Amino acid sequence: MKKALITGNRGQDGAYLSQLLLSKGYEVYGADRTGDSGLWRLRELGIEGRVKDAFLDILELTNIMDALERIQPDEVYNFAAQSFVKTSFDQPILTAEINAVGVTRLLEAIRKVQPKIRFFQASTAELFGSTGSAQQNETNPFHPKSPYGVSKLYAHWITVNYRDARAMHASNGILYNHESPLRGEEFVTRKITAAVARIRKGLQESVTVGNLDSRRDWGYAKEYVEGMWLMLQQPVAGDYVLASGKTHTVREFVEAAFLAAGFRLEWRGKGLEEKGVDAATGKALVEVSKDFYRALDVDVLTGDATKAREKLGWTPKTEFKELVAIMVDADLKRLEVKQ
Ligand code: GDP
Questions:
Q1: pLDDT tier for residue 142 given thresholds of 50, 70 and 90
Q2: pLDDT of residue 289
Q3: Does the pLDDT value for residue 88 go beyond 90?
Q4: 11/183 Cα distance (integer angstroms)
Q5: pLDDT for position 256
Q6: pTM of the full structure
Q7: CA of 49 to the centre of ligand 1 (A)
Q8: Can 126 be counted among the known catalytic residues?
Q9: Other C-beta atoms within 10 Å of 48: how many?
């Protein structure tokens, strides 16, 4: 039986990967600083109690080493991160401690305890930040635009360095935005689908968002963790873009989410005065506020996952509208269970 250690296992990706590895017969160990607040994800996937506690914090080298010695994992997946771009502008140093130096602690502990352990790092499209090209693959230059992106850039290169200099099996997944019903409500997609469900059920009047014209390459997280697992099954480690290859605006996401709950939206006004109005009743369901705008946002990023398709046989399958509907349906069901 293979053993895997997943840091950040109560976040969206950690939970889906735990589920995938358990279904493949792995013994799964998890570490997560969110405590019980992330347990709902494992509960929803029906795997609560099946992931063993690894008792480690990536801020502390000695307990990472103790955990590796005790568990003797074959694979380590790192999702432990301060993962909010906006928060990273307020907490740049903590972001670096966790996202950058934390990865070095993990790699160094693996090197010392058992360098044959295979390592996956959750790298990100935020590395590209501002880019001259319409689509990015593994060879594009990096230019991050937030403390989050900069911290992840260090993490990316230290992973490459342990692969090159220490001959370790260490891989980066350069992940474009990936969403699901398990996404936290701090992210715009889940913020919208949770609000749409509450509006449908009469529990909320409207939702307020930031820049409606921001674009993202949004895929389905459940499929992305399969790509991550495939990276660690290759004879040679490497870096791979995982992306849908298509972008959509926040506005399109809002429209699709309301439509999935039976509302047709019409847009009225411009800029901060713009409103999304229910075409049937004229009621304002979507408002815009400066509070949710970014100090600096990344350019439009679209991923080219050709390498992952050719080498890993990985392709994204769930289309944008289907993904939005999956998320809205899950949020509606949660409210129905509560009522
Ligand atoms: P990110 O790509 O990791 O920053 O993921 P987010 O889901 O937080 O943000 C995606 C995009 O949505 C960014 O360009 C935001 O500026 C934009 N956005 C627009 N309105 C909102 C909002 O109300 N909340 C968040 N989080 N993002 C918003």
A1: very high
A2: 97
A3: yes
A4: 8
A5: 98
A6: 0.96
A7: 33
A8: yes
A9: 13
Segment among 42-46, 220-224, 299-303, 327-331 with least mean pLDDT: 299-303
Catalytic residue among 16, 29, 77, 126: 126
Using CB distances shorter than 6 Å, the residues near ligand 1 are 85, 177, 186-189, 191, 209-211, 214, 216, 250, 292, 294, 297
CB atoms within 10 A of CB 313: 10
Which ligand 1 atom lies nearest to the CA of residue 212? Answer: 19
Instruction: Please report the pLDDT score of residue 93 as a whole number.
Output: 98
Q: What is the 3-state secondary structure (H, E, C) of the chain?
A: CCEEEEECCCCHHHHHHHHHHHHCCCEEEEECCCHHHHHHHHHHCCCCCCCEECCCCCCCHHHHHHHHHHHCCCEEEECCCCCCHHHHHHCHHHHHHHHHHHHHHHHHHHHHHCCCCEEEEEEEHHHCCCCCCCCECCCCCCCCCCHHHHHHHHHHHHHHHHHHHHCCCEEEEEECCEECCCCCCCCHHHHHHHHHHHHHCCCCCCEEECCCCCEECCEEHHHHHHHHHHHHHCCCCCEEEECCCCCEEHHHHHHHHHHHCCCCEEEECCHHHCEEEECCCCCEEEEECHHHCCCCCCCCCCECCHHHHHHHCCCCCCCHHHHHHHHHHHHHHHHHHHC
- Within 13 A of 206's CA, how many CA atoms are on the CB side? 15
293 has catalytic annotation: no
83 CA distance to ligand 1 centroid (A)?
A: 12
* pLDDT category of residue 204 using cuts at 50, 70 and 90: very high
* CB atoms closer than 10 angstroms to residue 271: 8
Q: From the candidates 16, 26, 29, 148, which is the catalytic residue? A: 148
